[in-house]
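I'm curious: can you give me some protein's one-letter sequence along with its backbone structure tokens because I've never seen that pairing?
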Amino acid sequence: MKNTLKLIGDMMLKSYKIFCPNLNKFITLEIYIKKHKKGQINDALYILDGQNAFKDKDATFKRSLRFTKYVDLFKDTRNINICAIAIKSYEDDIERTNEYLPYKFEINTKWNKSQNLSISKAFTNDFINTIIPFINAIFNINDSYIFGASLGALYASFIANNYTIFKGCGLFSICPFLCEKALYKDLSINKRQKLKTFIYVGKNEESDSLFDKDLYLNSALKLYDFLNNDNTRLLIDENGVHNEESWEKHIIDFLSFIYSNSNIKQK
């Protein structure tokens, strides 16, 4: 295991490479927290496609989600200690798809022939049994949440609904249309009424020259109607497109929602 530590004023940015035995590879975790003190209680926020979480220069399309300023904001204004854990994904499009798609494709795409469901299964096993215990041991974690966008949102929904360690999830521009039958079957079995679920979609979403705005919008509406409980919120951005700049505008809404009416136990 390798790690580097950067102290930026009263902020901490830490990078770890940890070995995931089921994936049989090292993965990079980049962790951001503000005003970290020994014995401090924190909430964990896991961010998928972690290369896009913090810094523009590291982001796939050179525009990150800029999560650091929202971690700072919640510490400064609400005294909520968020430990943001960015899990970097595969750079290769096919490998990323295999990691984040836990169900078999139900529509024809350019990735169908290369799908390997065992990779997503291995990632889930490592997430639950390697990554989370590693973070919990270092940072004194209270509650855990997960955030994902696009395919990352689909995976975030899957793992949050199947593992009760997660108290809430942010699903930005989710794409259930890739595997709708399997997803809704899984949700029907593992439906968690108390899971705080924030769904975001823009009205002008397009991606990969394959999926248009009607697919994203209608999928978000259907998912919201299916969950149909007080712990679910849908936010539709009239001008939102499928990128980090649009998603970043609503991170504050996501965090505000998951912490609404919560009994904060942190110190």
Summary: Strands lie at 2-8, 11-20, 25-34, 42-47, 82-87, 141-149, 166-172, 196-202, 232-237.
